[in-house]
Amino acid sequence: MARSVAEFLVNQLVAAGVERIYGIVGDSLNPVVDAVRRTPGIDWVHVRHEEAAAFAAAAEAEVTGKLTACAGSCGPGNLHLINGLYDANRSRVPVVAIASHIPSAQIGTKFFQETHPDRLFTEASVFSEMISTSRQVPRVTRTAIQHALTAPGVAVLTLPGDVADEEVPDDDAPILIPGACPARVVPNLQDVRALAEAINRSRKVTLFVGAGARDARTEVLELADLAAAPVGHSLRGKEIIQYDNPFDVGMSGLLGYGACQSAMDDADLLVLVGTDFPYDSFLPADVPTAQIDIDASHLGRRTRLDLPVHGDVGETLRLLNPMIRRKTDRKFVRQMTKKHADLMGKVVGAYTRNVEKTRPIHPEYAAVVLDEAAAEDAVFTVDTGMNNVWAARYITPNGRRRVIGSFLHGSMANALPHAIGAAMAEPSRQVVALAGDGGLSMLLGELITVRNYDLPVKVVVFNNDTLGMVKLEMLVEGLPSYGTDSPAVDYRKVALALGIPAVRVEDPKDLRKALRDGLRRPGPALVEVITDPNALSIPPSITSGMIRGFATAMTKQILGGGMGEVMSMARSNLRNVPRP
User: Which family is annotated (predicted)?
Assistant: First the structure.
């Protein structure tokens, strides 16, 4: 039986394990949508914005490790995908995006809604091609799937509506060629020996671990023990290496906490393990540095590099660890882990003082109560901004939980659509969208998607009526905050109007019960927490430039008549200022 291009493509996606396509229907996309309707094993998920479709597909791929798909109609429809696709591609998750196109005879004539998706999506993908004729199927479509799975990343197929309706000439062509198992990337033994010699002769070694160590946790901890090395981590490395780790010293970067920065600065050898940490200002320029990465293009592009090792982290450490002589001098690791424990108690844990009497609610306290109330295998999706900070510092990993966010692309509004994808993929698992009021308001319509599919997404909104991270950025640069405040919105009423059970919490005494009840409720729920708008994160390393920036901004605010706001901010943040 002859099949159209759209039917063949949909069948290929099903054969590759795709169970749903996220998107919004539209004229040029109709052949694909109708093919989904008629094909067993795949569903169409109607979101309210194509950006949310891409985020949802990315989260599903992140949680399951399987290929996912999203789609947008011609012109504006598929253009809306691009932000979520950038995020998915930078997170290296396998997504196929179908960008439907104007009629093929009209391409190049400035036709209604004409864009050039095959060009526009190049930077946001590992593969972007247009299907101009049915004769390209199945090879081009199959190639797109292979690229998405093996890079991994985003593969974009631009498909004119009229071509989608053409018949595929060779109906006997195989739907899909089975993918090969991932190759082993084994490092050069000479580089491994050089790293072993450097570790053996160094007195103070620090490991800084990222997401590239996901399948090598045991080997990393073995190396830390052998080298008596404190272990810091990036944000994406937190869920992999922080829990049950006696060598843990926390995280670096603007969101960081604990003794990680000191452990890196005071080391005489820093080993970057599976991380492409982008913030070079937090990486010491005067400390000899080694780097292990499966992608050779990452080596040395962020900071100084004395010892490069190109290879998979697990493969590298299985060769490296037997070469390491176990250090008997444990002074450095003891100092750093003790400093970390002290900082966690005095600074990061400072929210514990009289918090049940303090209004507005400390966001740190709200994050801790959420952490305690959530399931042991919960999936947290986290908005960019201050919610990223509170999640990084207070959500406790355990090897079963997942924390998903726009950690490399840094997009606002990702938490809710990410939660949709995670809940679609694993509806029996607790999914918590930790959203800021700024992020939630940006893609607020996706609450309709949650209600429409009765998804068990628990939306926890930290509502402070301001863009807190932007405010902090302005203060660091010496600028008084401007344009960061939002009008007061009662998100509880919005949720209730959509038929989603919701509560609003203003008194911290009510917080624990509200979160516990909301998380236990079947189906969707929203808990709105009114948090302190002046609570800002203090980075683990405070530079003189930051201090000057804060001082300048505060002076400008006072001279502008904002003395009350300055005092309120001081009271809100004194608890977080590092103390000896």
Answer: Belongs to the TPP enzyme family.
